[in-house]
């Protein structure tokens, strides 16, 4: 069974990779967000979770389209890094599809660093979706599960509240703890980056 504790030879690379996964794959700038979380001591084998909520100054319909076309938005969030996102199985934006995210431009990221994420469900009417990592990403850090559920709630015609719940399991250890904390900090930052992109590119979505 994989352990979360890095060896002395790779601890720095592991640390940089955790930061990378949280702040580039989940690259959001948190100006305002609140969370309701399960107390976290480590990634034990018991199921753990945390919840985040972000209010954004874009219509719910635009953000929903952006989330469904995230492979088109992603390259604009961290330009020049060499990071890519592509659908490798199924049809983009359809349940069952698998997206490959490769990390090309972060110092300390292991060679060939990547994450594969499967879209589990998507409901256009309710504006909800769920996904789970199936390879790479958090799974190489000692987690045995890392999945999320997202829901959009319109606030009038020009704003939206995004709520996301992350559920995870792991073997425990400081790298897992750090990854969770980085995700809690980085995910709102990422959605702020998406918001900024949509506000500056009003023809998209």
From TrEMBL:
PANTHER family assigned to the protein according to its UniProt record, in alphabetical order: OS08G0374000 PROTEIN, OS08G0374000 PROTEIN-RELATED
Q: Name one Pfam family in it.
A: Bet_v_1
Which biological process terms from the Gene Ontology are attached to this UniProt entry?
abscisic acid-activated signaling pathway; defense response
User: Which InterPro entries does this UniProt record tie to the protein?
Assistant: Bet_v_I/MLP (IPR000916), Bet_v_I_allergen (IPR024949), Plant_def-hormone_signal (IPR050279), START-like_dom_sf (IPR023393)
Q: What SUPFAM superfamilies has UniProt attached to this entry?
A: Bet v1-like
Q: What is this protein called?
A: Bet v I/Major latex protein domain-containing protein
Family of this protein: Belongs to the BetVI family.
The superkingdom of the source organism is Eukaryota
Annotated Bet v I/Major latex protein domain ranges read 50-201
MF terms in GO: abscisic acid binding; protein phosphatase inhibitor activity; signaling receptor activity
């Amino acid at each position: 069974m994989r352990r979360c504790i890095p060896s002395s030879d790779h601890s720095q690379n592991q640390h940089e990779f955790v930061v990378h996964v949280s702040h580039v794959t989940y690259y959001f700038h948190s100006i305002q967000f609140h969370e309701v979380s399960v107390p976290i001591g480590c990634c034990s084998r018991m199921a753990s979770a945390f919840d985040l909520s972000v209010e954004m100054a874009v219509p719910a319909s635009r953000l929903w389209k952006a989330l469904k076309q995230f492979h088109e938005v992603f390259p604009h969030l961290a330009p020049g890094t060499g990071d890519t996102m592509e659908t490798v199985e199924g049809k983009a934006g359809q349940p069952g599809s698998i997206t490959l995210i490769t990390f090309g431009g972060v110092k300390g990221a292991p060679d060939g660093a990547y994450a594969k994420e499967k879209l589990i469900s998507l409901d256009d009417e309710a504006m909800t979706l769920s996904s789970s990592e199936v390879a790479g990403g958090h799974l190489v850090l000692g987690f045995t599960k890392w999945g999320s559920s997202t829901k959009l709630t319109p606030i009038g015609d020009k704003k939206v509240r995004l709520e996301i719940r992350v559920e995870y399991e792991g073997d425990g250890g400081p790298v897992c703890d750090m990854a969770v904390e980085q995700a809690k900090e980085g995910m709102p930052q990422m959605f702020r980056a998406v918001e900024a992109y949509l506000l500056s590119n009003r023809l998209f979505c």
